[in-house]
Design a protein that fits this description.
The chain has two domains: about 180 residues, 3-Layer(aba) Sandwich (Rossmann fold); about 180 residues, Rossmann fold. The strands form two sheets. It has a seven-stranded parallel β-sheet, sandwiched between helices. The protein starts with a strand and ends with a helix. The protein is elongated and about 65 Å long. The chain contains 15 helices and 13 strands. About 45% of the residues lie in helices and about 15% in strands.
Amino acid sequence: MRILYVITDLEIGGVPLHLYWLARHMSDEGFEVHVTCLSPPGPVTRMLAEAGIPTSACHAGGAWDWRAIDRLNRITADLAPDIVHSFLFHANIACRFVALLGALATDRLICELQTVEVERSWHLTMERLTHRWCRYVVANSPSVVDHLAQRARIASDRLVLVQGGIDPTPIRESAPAKRSSLGVNESDPVLLWTGRLDPVKRLDDLISAATVVNRSIPIQVLLAGEGPDRPRLERRVGQSGIADRVHLLGQRTDVPRLLKTADLFVFPSLTEGMPNALLEAMAAALPIVATDAPGNRDLITHNENGLLVPIGDCEKLAGAIANLLRDRTLRQRLGACAARAIDRQFHIARTYGRYRSLYARLAPLR
């Protein structure tokens, strides 16, 4: 079976990295895989090439560069894939227009969304108007399924849940990073957050809560990731009064080692889909404090494998952090339950198996 994966961009991020591992797995399983992006090539393009996955790019100059659709149409016509599987809003819309142009059949197109969209309501309008131009819309969590059904009015016979997952082995086999290399001392508890620096992550709330906690429990906060919100966050940290205790680490290639170093994982997002950062923290058996947000609540059950607090409630966020830091038994219980949930429900092998079954519905194996 020949599969063309299409994505908006191949910058470092949760969905491009998910696609990277999916493409590698399907190639290893004997599928003929090609990956293209609407944007110019990115860092994940190089990773795919190094793994032997053929790639191409449509070199869109912006979100509304319609020339990219013509380029995607030609790439699709040349490859003649059995299935096209797209990721993220712009790639999904572009592939649906390519289907209308005739380079692929709509019943061989799968479009995937991996977040509960709250910032741009017009995305949901476009989904409602165009989702019939593909066979399936895949969502990676129950929250995303519900959101697309209710807000985009996507029919149930087109919506498919392929729950996200990870391989916990690399995390569990990693050694902790040396605290001295991170600029933190050996005695203070370390709070960790990983992801993309974006306003939807509500890192202001984490900084505010850390300021409160630090008054009674000296802590260190590690923020691992890059993104458009970094300049503003740097100013916010500088004004927090705990600038010497909040460390913006930038993009890291050693997240498993950071997870094994941290004492607590904090994730105060406004909304998520099936957050890879949270899955990784669970695999590391870290105690977790997260907001009761879509996506987060699909993974965390309050007081069972983590603690959930209301979105934007910095006082309750600080209280939950302090409570865990003071209660070692609770930390160990929550962390152990989180790790078991990965093995039972969120292992990547289950995810890949669901993708294979979905592909088999659309196109027979050669």
